[in-house]
Structures are given as structure tokens and as C-alpha cells.
Amino acid sequence: xxTNYAQRHLRFGWWSLLLFATLGLTLETLHGLKxxxxxxxxxxxxxxxxxxxxxxxxxxxxVHVAFGLTLKSAAxxxxxxxxxxxxxxxxxxxxxxxxxxFLGGIxxxxxxxxxxxxxxxxxxxxxxxxxxxxxxxT
Amino acid sequence: MRRLxxxxxxxxxxxxxxxxLVAAAALAAAIAxxxxxxxxxxTDRPAQAARDGYESSSACRAxxxxxxxxxxxxxxxxxxxxxxxxxxxASFDNVSVSxxxxxxxxxxxxxxxxxxxxxxPDRVGAGVGVGVSAGAGVGPRVxxxxxxxxxxxxxxxQQIYWYATxxxxxxGQLPAIWLTADRRWIPRRAAVMRPPGPPHAETGAWNxxxxxxxxxxxxxxxDAPFGSRPIADQIADTxxxxxGIACEACHGPGGDxxxxxxxxxxxxxxxxxxxxxxxxxxxxxxxxxxxxxxxxQCHSFWEFADAASERRANSFGLPYRPGDDLTATRLVxxxxxxxxxxAMKALLADDPAFVRDTFWSDGMVRATGREYNGLIDxxxxxxxxxxxxxxxxxxxxxxxxxxxxxRPLEEWRDDQLAATARDNSACLQCHDRGTERAAPQERAAPQxxxxxxVARAFQARDPSTHTHHRADSSGSVxxxxxxxxxxxxxxxxxxxxxxxxxxxxxxLETGRMNACNLCHVDQTLAWTAEAINKWYGRPAPPLAPDDxxxxxxxxxxxxxxxxxxxxxxxxxxxxPAQRASGTSWxxxxxxxxxxDPYDAxxxxxxxxxxxxxxxxxxxxxxxxxxxxxxxxxVRALQTWRDARASSSRxxxxxxxxxxxxTFNAPTVDRLMRERNTxxxxxxx
Lengths: 138, 684
Known about the structure:
heterodimer; A: 138 residues; 77% helix; B: 684 residues; alpha+beta; 9-stranded antiparallel beta sheet; two-stranded parallel ribbon; 32 helices; globular
């Protein structure tokens, strides 16, 4: 079962990396083309939110890869490991954290992001829960 | 093994938690310490101390990044700065400045500190005679002082430097100021419209006067109001919430607002309901009269209602807060309305020439920076009954660049005009609708007749039916006819902010050039009177012979007072005037002004002269000694004469030329003998 989860997170991680690296490339292109909807001072909140989406998505992709490799190396204590819960929490974090930041940057109110940012704390809690469970099993 | 691992994990968590706590404490201490180090230890200059609900702009930045950025780029922010190598526009790196009265002023940088050595301004005035101009070694020797330069004022047009006098927080002003556009030093007196005379010290002026408007919540805190005792005998504990004109100068104290909106739910509730936040003032949401008062608190001539108000302001700062009724705590000077008030009488007893120097005789303000005085006497404000059609500062200006404005902030900040107010759109906000909202009895009023005329013209997309100028010409720009350049300050003229229509009668009565003759500088008043009569049906007033036969600009240039001469001098360098009137005849008149007794007039004349063909590289130092100036004036005339053969020069009698191209010297001499030589001192 651990092998299945390992494969699942390796796949998820690498696809996630591809997605958020592409987002990074897109943001760089917006910089390169000096797109005002992204770079104007009045869009500072959008720039921050989307940069955070890119950063969190990419790093979480790496976390998935690391988790997949950890599962493969069987370095975890099986009795303390609830792989299904960890897997769900990690995937939830990968969707909610960057997704919340991204949505928060689409429509925003001055220095306040859009309501999509409400997803972020749930994503953060999922991530912390997953990391806690992994830490306990090491 | 599991137990050992558990212990290790608990230890690790404890260490991590301890590290996080230490880091947080260090960060908090660093933030708190930075403020204390910067301002808390300062004793020799005014200090920034936010109190009574003020927070400073740094509290606004997180929630209002766009507004913060446009304010940060503005000249409002840089109006007052702490002097450092980064904030001074001039170089202080071992520089000797000769453009001062007396000995050279020497400047140097020591680390992050700026120092200056110069003749003590508080002792120079008594020893130096009238007419002594800049240059090393001129005038008797006076005490030299070496002081640390601690503050700056301005950055857009000029930058003024203030030094710590050593007497509490009292500041003195360096004897030379930096002209930003020309990148040069000039003696302080040359920067303002004042007659020739000895330099005057400005010691204590920052604490007593500048602090009110060049900072946010400024408090002089002199031990007696400024001017009531010699400044050397006074002690100042001057403070302000923030240097420069910051967020809270226009929005009011922001402490309650910042605290209330630390709660995200409240913020989002306000975002979604669009309701006004009662914890802060939004000037653009105020009634037009109150919103304009926010600007008017500084952009106006005003006086304390009584001595008690002045004493209170000295201790606690001015009581006005954005949203208040400005007139409840101050007397805004309106010569046509309150000249007889007790406060005005007291003001005039102190400075009898104040009204005459700063207002035209019909009450229109003639000094820059007091646009509110012009606004409140404008018909678009005074006669307006509908708040949606009432002129306010925000009809044209915006303190934060519009989201759709493509101009870079560096360009926008020059006039802070809204994107929709850079052309005729500004006026068409109201004047494209005629009188459909006016009451029947109002429709017959002259302003509404004109309104219909304007509305028809612009609705038909043919402004020329109203302006009688080509639609694409500068004569069809509303501003040019209704807001001409008749206000002076900071070595230039700016548009009058009292909306008016060109009137020969007003020119005759007040001496203020009308918009027609400021562009058609080659035409007489009679020509203008005839055009206005023909186009708008206003009868031509009786005219003096000179007004019939001599270009109005030249009558004013030769006969007018220093303020009037400055206005004409700038007009001769104005591109639309040059296009409308030609330039081949202008040089001798501008050359004449190169020897004007007023530094400011000479400066403007030179600036206009070098816009003329053949004078682009003409070198002239407007603060040079009189004999040098006279020599250069002759050279300017020679340059003009040399160019005579190569160009088709106008020899109109109205321009005081004889048919053979020579000057009509008798008339020029006569008009100059009739010149208004009264002393003109602008409060700039």
C-alpha cells in the first residue's frame, strides 16, 4: 500500500511542480512584458498573492516528491503512520494553499486579498497536520 | 528506543519554540528601537512624535499600497525631509557656494551628517548695504558660523536648507537655496518676489510658520507665539506627527481607523457593502465645500480669529481637522468679504501692504499656493447650488493617481491633475449640459446664457462656435481663457484658480492682464475689447490713448509693478503666445527686464529670452552685480540687432517700433517713467 501512495505522491509532486513552475514562468513573462494588470502599484496585492501561489505550489510539489521518496525508503514507523490521512492532508494543502492565494489575487480590495484567500488557512492547517503526522512516524 | 525518540522529539520542539520566541522578541525590539533612535534622541531640531490619534503614514501602507505609493511619489511627501546625503537635491560634498551675500558658504559631508559654514544670517542684514549682490568678499565681514544642516523644505521647484541653531529646536535657514530646475544655488532673497535690499534672516520661521503646513499635525511649541519676542530669546519644542504632508494631513488622525480595521471581518464588511468608514475622513466623499477646505487649510491665505487662537495653536497645533468647517477656526482672507473684520484689521496693522501685494484690487488672489482663495471666489463654486455641479479642488485634482492614468507617477505628480482634467473634459463635467437643471429664473442669468453657449458648442463637437478660435488651437482650451497665468510665486506664474472670463474692464480696473492679451501679446487692449464685444456682446469700455495704440503686454511690462512685469515676462516665453504673436520683436523687451531691480523678474525674463531663436545659448547670471548685468543686457540687444537682417522682423507701431525698425524710444521712455515702482513683497 505504501508503494501505491509513494507512486501517487511522486506523480502528484512532479505534475504539481510542472504546473507551478509554469505559473512562475507566466509571472516572469508578465514582468517581462510589463503588464500593468500585474505590475502596477495598484496591483501590488495581486502580485503578492500570485507570487505566494507560485512559491507555495512549487514547494508543496517538492514536499510531495519528498514524501513519496520517504515512503519508498520505508524509513517511517508503520504503526504511527496513517498514510491515507497524510496523503489526503497533503493533497488538500496543495490545492487549498496555492489555490487560495491565486484566487485571492484575482479580485482584491486595496491591501486586502479577495475572499479566495479564506482557503489558505485551511490549506495551512492541512499541511501542518500532514507534517505533524509524518514527523511522528519518523 | 521509541521512548528515547519521544524524548528527543520533545526536546527538539522545545528548542524550536524557544528559538521562535527569541526571534519574535528581537524583531519587536528592533522595530521599537528604530523609532526611538531616530527621533527620540533628537534635541537640536523639530522631532516627529505622533500623538492625539495620529499614527504616521507607515500605518497606512499595508492596507492602502496604491494610495501610499502615489503619495510617496508626490511632492507633498518631500515638502519636509530630514537632511541627509540621500534627501538633499544639491551636492554638499566639499562645495563652496559663491551665490550668497558676503563670504562663500562652504558645505561638507561628515558621514551621514551635512555641515555648512557661512556668515551668520542673523548678523548679515545689519551690515550689508542695499543692492549688494552675490559674490565672494562683498560687504563687510560678519561672524562666521558652522552648523549642521538638519532639515530640508521643498524639492519640486526649490530646496531650502535649515540648520540647527543650537538654541533648543529652533532652526535657521542657509543663506542660499537650491534651484532644482537650474541645478544651481541662488541667494535666498533672489528666490522670492522682494525688492532689492539686505538679506533677511529666517531664523525660527520653520518652527513658527512652516511647521503648520509643511508637516502633519505640526505644533510650534515656542514659549511664546512666533514674532512676539526676538527668536534668540525663545525656546522651541517643535514637533509634528510626521514631516511632509502625509496621509493624516488630509484624512485626519488615523489611529482609530487603524485599530478598528485590524479586524478583517470589519474590513471585508466595508469592502462588500461599500459603506463609508466613519473612523476616517475621505475628502472625496465630503460635500464639495468641505472637501475643498481640506486643501484650503494650507492652500489659502488665512488669519487666526483672535490672539487666543494663536496661542492655542502655538501649543497644540491648529485645531482644524479634515471634515471640519475651516471657517469655524480661521478667517480665510477674502478682501471683498472680510476686509473690515477685526482679524483683518489686525493683520493689516502689522503688514499694511499685505492685501495690495497678494490680491488684485478686485479681490482675486495673485500669489501662488493659495488656490483655495481663488476657488471660493469662482462663480462655479460661489453660485453653485447643486453639489454635483459645484467646483471643488477634486473636480480637477487627485491626490492619488487614477488607476486608469497611463502617466508615470513622476509626470502625474507635477500638477496632480486627474486623468479626466487634463483638457476641456475638466469643464465639460458640468458645462456640456446647459441649464437643464437650473431654475427658470436662473436660466436668464448671464452665466447660464454662457453655459448654453458652451454646451451647444461642445455638444456639436465644434468648440470654435464658442471660442472663436480653431477647435484644435490653444485658443479653444478652456483653461487658457478662463484660468490664465496671472498668479505668481516660486519664480514662475501659474494659472489663476479663480475661474473668470476675459475682461478688458477688469484689466483697466485691476492691472491684471486678461487672457486674450496674455496670448496675443502683440495686440492692444482696444483690439481685445473689440473682439470681446463682437463675439460676446460685452460693451468696450473707454480706453486711454496708450491702450488704443500700444500692445497691452508692453504697457504692462513697461509701466506695471514687479508682479505684473513677471507675468508678462513669462507670457513672452509661453509657446502658445509665441505662436500667436511671433517672436521677432520680443528680445529687446526681455533684454530690458534683464536689468530689472527685482531678481525674480530678471530670472523669468532670462528664462523666456532663451526660448527665442538665436538666444538658446545666451549666458546671463540674474544675480550678477548690476554692472555685469548691464553689459550682458547690451549684448542681448546686440544679438537681436545682428539677427535683424536675417529675419523678417515686425515693425508694428503697437510694438513700439518705428517703420525703419528702430525703437520708439520716446514712448518706451515715457512708459517706463510712468512705471509703478511701489515695493512689491509677495508672501510666497
